[in-house]
Fold:
Amino acid sequence: MPLDAPRSQTTLTSTARMKHLFDVRPRVSEPYPVLCGEGPVDALHSVWRPEWRQAVVVGDSNTAALFGKPLALRLRELGCEVLELEFPAGEPSKTRATKERLEDAMLAARIERGACIVAVGGGVVLDLAGFLAATYLRGIAHIHVATTLLAQVDAAIGGKTAVDTPFGKNLIGAFHHPRAVLLDQAALRSLPLVELRHGLAECVKHAVIRDEMLFKSLERLTSFDDPPSAELILRSVAVKVAIVAVDPLEHGERRSLNFGHTVAHAIEAATNHTTAHGAAVAIGMIIEARLAVMKGWLPKDALDRIVALLERIGLPVRAPCAFDAAAPFFAIDKKTSEGRIQCALPEQLGVFGAHDGQWTRSVTLAELLRAWT
Ligand code: GLY
Structure:
């Protein structure tokens, strides 16, 4: 049954194996459902709109055949004209050049404004395909099918789309919300352990900024070698959904989701994107939390618990590059304002201060240097 209108949270329904758990209500665009579970093919069918007569299924070299193909097959069965596009997996593909190649393929295939892009994969695929949807013919619909933990708890929700540039990460992009988000739990079972760890870094971030109980639940886990429970994932997703609802365009509270990211993006750029985003976020959270302790803004025991949890998860806790290599990238960070570096810093586990509506604090290069090691 096509989903003609978004459902409210009080009338949640499910496909055979995927449950409709949230509606994201970003105010700047129409609400959209988040479905979680197994069986993305049926779930895609359930959210597909009859007016989308063309589909563009975008995946990378890891996801296109494995997860994209069955979705494309079902869309063809529904009578859609389907174009399947693929690019090499990995952050180095998240560029304007890749986007241009995909755009040209869509133009050559005469994909029209009434089409819907189905992005299938992790953060790189969702960010890139979302940006493609944001600008193709001035904007078309898209759906996210998230197959990594990191994408499920973060990238799939909230409408941030972007590509990287040699000047830094995610510097060219747009806000463009998807029409539906499918979180494929079965896909997590095929995810390499290291990728699970990277996703857990974003779960820890959500716990630190807004949900101390989630932090405690993560601390209580005895093993991080299996995908986290659906309950834990949904708790993390709930943090993101709640923040996006009040501040979809990052004018205020959404900046709290950047905890760890000022340092993380600089590390990623300084290491030429060889440091994975989740690993960089783990290191970034530690350096930024250390800085907050140094400034007297965060109790030391909160820092100690963040470090201990990230270490137990198996995430890196030390910067992989010298401070001097990362320093130039702070100047071009999206949050830098009037030359001042902005960091989103928690005040306690689960508590973030609004700071006159800024939700960030100005810090200096010298302070970041002191927090680096
Ligand atoms: N990943 C942070 C945000 O979506 O705002």
Remarks:
- The radius of gyration is 20 Å.
- Residues 1-12 have pLDDT under 50 and may be disordered.
- The longest helix spans residues 193-210.
